[in-house]
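Re-run requested by the PI after the first attempt was lost when the workstation crashed. Everything re-entered from the original request form. Ligand of interest: S-adenosylmethionine.
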Amino acid sequence: MIKGFVAGEEFARWYATARQMAIAHGIEVGELDWLLQGWTDLDRLTLRLQDFSRRQISLREPWDNVQQGWQKRVEEKYPVQYLLGHTQWRNFDLKVTSDVLIPRPETELIIDIVQNQSDQWGLRDPSGHWVDLGTGSGALALGLASLFPHALVHGVDCSAPALAIARENAQRHQLGDRIQFHQGHWWEPLGHLRGQVQGMVSNPPYIPQAELPQLQPEVINHEPLLALDGGADGLQAVEQLIRRSPAYLKPGGFWLVEIMAGQAPIVAELLRKNGTYQDIHIHRDLAGIERFVSARTLG
Ligand SMILES: C[S@@+](CC[C@H](N)C(=O)[O-])C[C@H]1O[C@@H](n2cnc3c(N)ncnc32)[C@H](O)[C@@H]1O
């Protein structure tokens, strides 16, 4: 929807200043173009050529909001995705607000790993239950629902505002009747599924508390602390997921978590020590970081 217009010459003057602001604050100039592609009718090429002066530019946000939005990005380090209100993740355009973690590109790989491993182990039970614990925006739940067209997917989060966004995202992508969302702590709201779950994935909070202040201001000042804080060693949530999952998964059920660099060997060891898991694997992300650990329950 068009919410206003700005003359090309005025826009050109502002754009030059906005670029300088980005450079002075160490922000990629590309982020400005990304925001403007969402908020104006300008395309990438026109922005690159800075070919504004002979035209009137249509705005999808009032001109004041565009200018203030960029100022907020630069001065407060407010993420572009929250300004735009949505982001691309796999083939989904997802609504995001500061109530949810912005889904990351590396997390997309979880769906590929699930696909590969479930092919390998014949986990494609058409009536299976799949679970995304700590669903946030619902990204992984949507990914699972599109990967397994006959499965019932459950997304759990303890944050009510996050679940509202996740529900909206599921509906936006016509997956509302394939995903059930539940509010509560990890497995707690899924008591009715004990012993019946085909697979679970989770991208839990995993940052050790002492490292939180070193995160980029975009992350620590604007993304939900609940999505980041992994307790003293960062593994508080992961340990619970290791301990509790065997009671809910079917024999041979799939288990996978995302973790941060350096945690994979510890998580693999915790799974081994637990004694109810087999086929424990560490998977790297595209940057070569050991980012995911998967396993299956015995049986
Ligand atoms: C790192 S975010 C992941 C969000 C989303 N799955 C993604 O990958 O983009 C972790 C999520 O776990 C949720 N969470 C934190 N503690 C939880 C708990 N005890 N029970 C359920 N969810 C929890 C947070 O609210 C947050 O949405």
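Saved to the shared folder this time. The pocket of S-adenosylmethionine is lined by residues 101, 103, 107, 134-137, 139-140, 156-159, 162, 185-186, 203-205, 226-227 (CB under 6 Å).
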